[in-house]
Design brief:
62% of the residues lie in helices and 9% in strands. By secondary structure, the chain is α/β, with parallel strands linked by helices. The chain folds into two domains: 2-337, Up-down Bundle (ABC transporter transmembrane region fold), CATH 1.20.1560.10; 359-375 and 398-462 and 535-623, 3-Layer(aba) Sandwich (Rossmann fold), CATH 3.40.50. The strands form two sheets. The chain has a six-stranded mixed beta sheet, sandwiched between helices. A four-stranded antiparallel beta sheet has the order 2-1-4-5, covered by helices on one side. Strand 4 and strand 5 (440-441) form a beta hairpin. Helix 3 (37-69) packs antiparallel against helix 4, helix 4 packs antiparallel against helix 6 (134-176) and helix 19 runs parallel beside helix 20.
Length: 624
């Protein structure tokens, strides 16, 4: 941590510029380093010892030259040569230890950072993921975390050593000849001034490159998915997509070229200054040696020490550039960590009570949160987030599903049915009123117990690009093999899985696209059966299926709903005629409630929807 603080002080001038970084960022980075302070301390000790040995060799080399010029016995020369060799071996071994310590600390810090970000993102509400560019988010966890890693794995290993080497070298050089040392340092500002200006420029370019890389990641993530690739092909747009990607990639290339050239010019200039200083030492030192005021060995020692002096300066200047870029990556990662999740367990949250569960909505009002509460402008690729408040979509919604009852929600598209279903598992929190499970407000319950109590099947039947086994075990990781097959049997899917070459280990493809729509839905139902929830939520689970698939899925759903409290959103009214209670939702309100027969007799909105589906010839398939 001392090393990083020292390096940051050398970069302080850029802090107030547009491309600089804040002290708060450095303090947060040091906070991540505290758990590794023991290894950091050992690293500092090893670095100091290693830096000391770096100054010893030039001094010994000077003594060898003096021994040769003075005609000393060869035994002394051999002894000095052996000492130099021993120092070199010791230095190499110590360097390996130093590198291992810095690498383990750096990788450990990155592990902590990466897992912290991943866990934090998982706690974000669904609204965060509906607004965020997936590629931009993945870029933060990959490109930016790897960029941050350079500050420790590549740069930190040299900072302390170079600082100590610099100080010791100056002390020894001044002891040999303070006049030559001072003249050699006249060119020192050439190192410092460019470093102070270039750090902010490179940091700005790093930010721009990170944004372009995130945009490319987003495009690849969306276009390389099965639905995205299909959409591009259907509309014949591959050439346009290729051009757009090439433009973004070209911008990253241009920034990379400018960065590389800027660094090359900077380091070349530093190398040139070092060469000029070396010429000064040889010229002035040679004159002093001829006059007898300096030994020839001292001139050689000064020349070698000068390389040890300017090499750390060059390394520190380069480290400044690298760390400025790495700090930008840290800032982009911290931006994610600073976005607080809207939903979290309150202190003293309790478990869902045992036994059958009722679901109650009590005068619920709800509006989806505004963008500034759940997202970041950089993740949405916009200049500024929309700060306007959300429009209320649910108004005084009240109903109760008793234990074991089936309650159906029907109504027009966009009426608020899916929103109601998302409030029960607390994917969002209500603005007023309450959602209760067994009489307890979900905000007073633990998230784990809510997830264990409620099971949900959505209309898209989402599956991960993993095996059938892995997708099932998501519901209950400890499930035995026979339990998996039992769930598949009850979901009417066991014969299909047995016919596959790899059985349960068959990979279903991204989003399950290697399976048909009905097969995907039945697999999600099997997963639900394996979870054994006490409450089942079905959000238009058969909306996009043909008649044959719908019949198979309905049979599987019969298994899933048996003996459980159920809230079912249905587009096809034929699937909910036997519901204990039907709620008609329009414009975020419940406008009618009752059984199928009662609502038909009333002749209201439900009867209108029913006639629309069953009286039109085009709706005939829904009758099967």
């Amino acid at each position: 941590m001392t090393a990083f603080s020292s390096l940051y002080k050398t970069m302080h001038a850029s802090e107030t510029s547009g491309g600089g970084v804040s002290r708060a960022t450095v303090r947060r980075i040091l906070g991540f380093a505290r758990p590794h302070k023991a290894r950091l301390l050992w690293f500092l000790v090893v670095s100091v010892v290693l830096s000391t040995t770096a100054v010893v060799t030039p001094v010994l080399a000077g003594q060898v030259v003096d021994a040769i010029v003075g005609g000393t016995d060869s035994g002394l020369i051999v002894t000095l040569a052996l000492v130099i060799a021993g120092v070199a071996v010791f230095e190499a071994a110590l360097g390996l230890v130093s590198r291992w310590l810095s690498a383990t600390v750096g990788e450990g810090l990155i592990l902590d950072l990466r897992t912290r970000v991943f866990d934090h993102v998982q706690r974000q509400p669904v609204a965060f993921f509906t607004r965020t560019r997936t590629g931009a988010l993945v870029s933060r966890l990959n490109n930016d975390v790897i960029g941050a890693q350079r500050a420790f794995s590549d740069t930190l290993s040299g900072v302390v050593g170079n600082l100590v080497t610099l100080v010791l070298t100056l002390v020894v050089m001044i002891g040999i000849s303070w006049q030559i040392t001072l003249l050699a340092l006249v060119l020192l500002p050439v190192f410092v001034l460019p470093a102070r200006r270039m750090g902010s420029r490179l940091a700005s370019m790093q930010r721009a490159a990170a944004e372009h890389n995130a945009a490319m990641s987003t495009q690849m993530t969306e276009r390389f998915s099965a639905p995205g690739a299909t959409l591009v092909k259907l509309f014949g747009r591959p050439a346009d997509e290729s051009h757009e990607f090439a433009v973004r990639a070209g911008r990253v290339r241009d920034i990379g070229v400018r960065t590389a050239m800027l660094q090359w010019v900077f380091l070349t200039a530093l190398t040139l200054v070092s060469a000029l200083a070396l010429a000064l030492v040889y010229g002035l030192g040679g004159v002093f040696a001829l006059r007898g005021s300096l030994d020839p060995g001292s001139v050689v020692a000064l020349a070698l020490l000068l390389a040890r002096l300017y090499a750390p300066l060059t390394a520190l200047a380069g480290a400044r550039v690298e760390v400025m870029s790495a700090l930008v990556s840290f800032e982009r990662v911290f931006e994610i960590l600073d976005l607080p999740p809207l939903i979290a367990d309150k202190a003293g949250a309790r478990e869902v009570p045992d036994g059958p569960v009722s679901v109650e909505f009590d005068k619920v009002r709800f509006a989806y949160p505004s963008a500034d509460k759940v997202s970041l402008a950089s993740l949405e690729d916009v200049a500024r987030l929309d700060t306007r408040g959300g429009v209320e979509v649910l108004h005084e919604v009240s109903f109760r599903a008793e234990p074991g009852q089936l309650v159906a929600l029907v109504g027009s598209s966009g009426a608020g049915k899916s929103t109601i279903a998302q409030l029960a598992p607390r994917l969002y929190d209500v603005d007023s009123g309450a959602v209760r499970l067994s009489g307890v407000d979900v905000r007073d319950l633990t998230a784990d117990s809510i997830r264990a109590t409620l099971g949900m099947v959505t209309q898209d039947g989402h599956l991960f690009h993993e095996s059938i086994r892995s997708n099932l075990l998501l519901a209950r990781p400890a499930a035995a093999e026979d339990e998996l097959w039992d769930a598949l049997l009850r979901a009417r899917l066991d014969d299909l899985v047995r016919s596959l070459p790899d059985g349960l280990d068959t990979v279903v493809g991204e989003r399950g696209y290697r399976l048909s729509g009905g097969e995907r839905q039945r697999l999600t139902i099997a997963r639900l059966l394996l979870a054994r929830p006490r409450v089942v939520l079905l959000d238009e689970a058969t909306a996009h299926l043909d008649s044959t698939s719908e019949a198979e899925v309905q049979a599987a759903l019969g298994e899933a709903l048996a003996g459980r409290t159920a809230v079912v959103i249905a587009h096809r009214l034929s699937t909910v005629r036997a519901a204990d209670l039907i709620l008609v939702v329009e414009d975020g309100q419940i406008v009618e409630r009752g059984t199928h027969e009662v609502l038909l007799a009333v002749g209201g909105r439900y009867a209108e929807l029913y006639r629309t589906q069953f009286d039109q010839p085009s709706a005939a398939p829904a009758l099967t």
